[in-house]
Amino acid sequence: MKKNEIEDTGLSSKFQTRTQRLIGRDGSFNVKKTGIGRFESFNLYHYLINISWTRFFILALLFYIVINLAFTVFYVIAGPEHLGIEKNLGSLHSFMNSFFFSAQTLTTVGFGRVNPQNAWTNIIATLEAGIGLMVFAVATGLLYGRFSRPATNMMFSRSAIFAKWGDNQRAFQFRVANAFTTEMMDAEIQVIASWLEPGEDGNEIRKFYALKLEYAKIVFFPTVWTVNHVIDENSPLFGKTLDDMIKDEAEFLILFKAYDDTFTQTVHARFSYRHDELVWGAKFKRVILIDEKGKSFVSLDKMSELEKVEI
């Protein structure tokens, strides 16, 4: 039996615990880097590009408020009367008008009703206007970076299955689909099976094996792709049962890539199935339907539905 063992995955064969996952359901690697300072490993641009839109806008709003509050304090210290704000209306009125003037200066709006009237307030307003130009230039770059960054919304079936194949064979299968309306082509998938095996020193080490797929590449990808690995005599899965995979902490690592016509570049996605996400003896239900006019419909909400079969 020929096993296509892979030794250059970039993942360590030293397995420290029997509960961790190599790749999370969100595609991130289960690796935490230590030994360096927090600021050495932190990149503000990468952080702001990769966080969710909700968190990005909340942080942008907080930064906008904080920087305006800081300059408001400077204007209040310099004297709100030097902005043409009446003092006899109370400190709150002066503070609020100073804040609104700061917002107008930062955004270079300048309505004109309130304006600096001495040297100190003019210096503060000049400094704020310069900072405002830089801040909005950076914000524009971040927004462009977030909008132009290639994004994928790949759907994988909740479970991978061991299905009947032919008369007396089995197959390892899962499904993948593009949830976006973008067009993809030249889609490729690589699947790596990984489990624990006894090492030479008696300790468990993690081995990685490439699975040969029935189709590792397809030209067009408009519907659902059922990825299929036939378990024959040359398969690393030959002779293995579900109990063996549970005992050996099996995990199937998936790398997907395709050319996205919208972004005009190659996009990637990662995923994995652990031993507790495998179903033995099942087949996927049909999700592609054709109406009387010949138009195809794909029910993505049903792509994970299974039927039990004997194998």
Mind explaining what this structure looks like?
The protein has 311 residues and is α+β, with helices and mostly antiparallel strands. The chain has helices at 38-41, 44-50, 53-78, 91-106, 119-148, 242-247, and strands at residues 154-156, 160-165, 169-178, 184-198, 204-210, 217-220, 224-231, 251-260, 265-274, 278-280, 282-284, 288-290, 296-298, 306-308. Strands 1, 2, 3, 7 and 10 form a five-stranded mixed sheet that branches. The radius of gyration is 29 Å and the shape is elongated.
Question: What is the structure about, briefly put?
Answer:
The chain is α+β, with helices and mostly antiparallel strands and 311 residues long.
